[in-house]
Amino acid sequence: MLFAPYERYQYARAPLVEVICQLRFPTILSIGAKEPAEFQEAIRKDFPQYAARQEQLPPKVVKKGNATALEPQKPITNYNFISEDGRWKLNLTQGFIALSTLSYTRWEDFATRLDRPLAQFIQLYQPAFFERIGLRYVNIFSRARLGLEGARWAELFSPAYTAPMQEAELPEDRFLNCACDLTLKLDSSCQAKVHAGPGVVKRNAPGVPQDPEVKFIFDMDLSMTGNTPCTLAAGALETLHGHSTRLFEGA
User: Are the C-beta atoms of residues 76 and 94 closer than 8 Å to each other?
Assistant: First the structure.
């Protein structure tokens, strides 16, 4: 089944390449007005490296009479706090706080890493509430790494994500593009955007040789909207994680 209760597993060769948790809140101008020295001091043991960069926001759509126009927005400062090994990164702007990692092992470890900086952020900046709480899992499956070179994607993934490739007489290499993009309502307050399909993963680093293997990308972006009180943020993330397990196992 596409979305049903499944037993939770921990995989020896997990396909996860990145996990990102982002919590958006109403703009707090004091975060961009000066460097967050007090916040850094509270989390510096776990995130000793620091960098800041200016980011240009996309234009905002505004109404002018009966017409609409694009209005440029001021750039914002994105403060980066990075772990010693460079595998964990905490981002803070005047509109969101986010934790991402390239070394995800299990949910409990990730939640523990998030717990202290999130608590310090709430204590120091006292956001009114969280407008959006998001949890994103980027999975990339390699048949070579799993010893499944002879298997077709249609055998390995649910027909919901591989429907055209279920035609056995049509070779996989005939499909130049066969991606599936879904937006699913998970419950009264949660939804998920899912991108699934085969493709070649490009490496953007200069001089790095490209990998020609066709892999299967399964990218889940789960979110909870509405004004969530800060005291309920941990529970909201647990809910999103529960949904993510069912989506992944169902695929």
Answer: yes
3-state SS record for the chain: CCCCCCCCCCCCCCCEEEEEEEEECCCCHHHHHCCCHHHHHHHCCCCCEEEEEEECCCCEEEEECCEEEEECCCCEEEEEEECCCCCEEEEECCCEEEEEECCCCCHHHHHHHHHHHHHHHHHHHCCCCEEEEEEEEEEEECHHHHCCCCCCHHHHCCHHHHHHHHCCCCCHHHCCCCCEEEEEECCCCEEEEEEEEEEECCCCCCCCCCCCCEEEEEEEEEEEEEEECHHHHHHHHHHHHHHHHHHHHHC
Q: What is the mean pLDDT of residues 156-168?
A: 87
pLDDT of 241 reads: 95
- Give the confidence band of 178 by pLDDT, cuts at 50, 70, 90: confident
How does strand 49-55 pair with strand 60-64? unpaired
Q: How far, in Å, CA of 97 to CA of 81, rounded?
A: 11
pLDDT given for residue 164 in this prediction: 86
Query: 0.85 exceeded by the pTM?
Result: yes
Question: Rounded to 5 degrees, what are φ and ψ at 171?
Answer: -60, 150
The tokens for 235 are 């529970």
The per-residue pLDDT of the chain, averaged, comes to 91
